[in-house]
């Protein structure tokens, strides 16, 4: 009898459902994100509907790689990307709307890159592009990535293999796939 009970308890521990990393061909999840304030929200499914877009995610606003390379590259290349048929360029991070708004102002992103605040990390989790950055940044954050989206569907996905590096998701690499 003891053995049977142990087996039942043991089996319970093996049931685990894991999230699946968003992939090319998947539809962008429907998640509310913030724009310039917590009161100003947009649904990601609606935002990318009927548009050809680039969405790129960063571990955090005002962090070195994000501020020196990632965001400035997309701001600098915005006109070039739009000439190639891109309707929307958006950057998302697990930060609050006020931080994202100020980060955008600091990099003159207004009019070229739309900044999205995933303040609770819900989009990062829904896309399975989150990682535990509590040691450095205090909570879970987005892995560094970029995606080419057409009418809400991921056409091409670039996820940094080491989570935070600056290689495959930079604008110079993404533009080659347009």
Task: Walk me through the structure.
Helices cover 32% and strands 23% of the residues. It contains eight helices and nine strands. The strands form three sheets. The chain has a five-stranded mixed beta sheet with strand order 5-4-3-8-9. The termini are far apart.
What is the structure about, briefly put?
With 178 residues, this protein is an alpha/beta fold.
The whole-number mean of residue pLDDT values reads: 86
Side by side, the strands of the main sheet go 5-4-3-8-9
Count helical runs. Answer: 8
Helix vs. strand class:
alpha/beta
The poorly predicted ranges are 1-18
How much of the sequence lies in strands comes to 15-25%
> What is the N-to-C succession of helices and strands?
HEEHEHHEHEHEHEEEH
Largest β sheet strand count, sense and barrel closure: 5 strands, mixed
> Could you give the count of β-strands?
9
What is the distance, rounded to the nearest whole angstrom, between the alpha carbons of the first and last residues? Answer: 64 Å
Helix content: 25-40%
Rg (C-alpha, Å): 18 Å
- Name the overall outline: globular
Keywords:
23% strand, two-stranded antiparallel sheet, 32% helix, alpha/beta
Please outline the helices and strands:
Elements: H1 2-12, E1 32-34, E2 41-43, H2 44-47, E3 52-57, H3 64-76, H4 78-83, E4 88-93, H5 97-106, E5 114-117, H6 122-126, E6 130-132, H7 134-137, E7 140-142, E8 145-150, E9 153-159, H8 171-174
Parallel strand pairs: 3-4, 4-5
Antiparallel strand pairs: 1-2, 3-8, 6-7, 8-9
């Amino acid at each position: 009898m003891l053995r049977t009970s142990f087996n039942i308890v043991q089996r319970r521990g093996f049931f685990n459902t894991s999230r699946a990393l968003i992939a090319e061909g998947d539809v962008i999840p429907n998640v509310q994100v913030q724009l310039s304030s917590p009161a100003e929200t947009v649904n990601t499914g609606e935002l990318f509907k009927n548009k050809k877009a680039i969405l790129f995610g960063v571990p955090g606003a005002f962090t070195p790689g994000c501020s020196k390379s990632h965001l400035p590259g997309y701001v600098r290349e915005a006109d070039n990307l739009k000439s190639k048929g891109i309707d929307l360029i958006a950057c998302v991070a697990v930060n609050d709307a006020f931080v994202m708004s100020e980060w955008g102002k600091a990099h003159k992103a207004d009019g070229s890159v739309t900044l999205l605040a995933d303040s609770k990390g819900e989009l990062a989790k829904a896309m399975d592009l989150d990682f535990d950055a509590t040691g450095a940044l205090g909570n879970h954050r987005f892995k560094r990535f970029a995606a080419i989206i057409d009418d809400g569907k991921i056409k091409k996905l670039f996820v940094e293999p080491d989570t935070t590096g600056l290689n495959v998701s930079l604008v110079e690499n993404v533009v080659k796939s347009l």
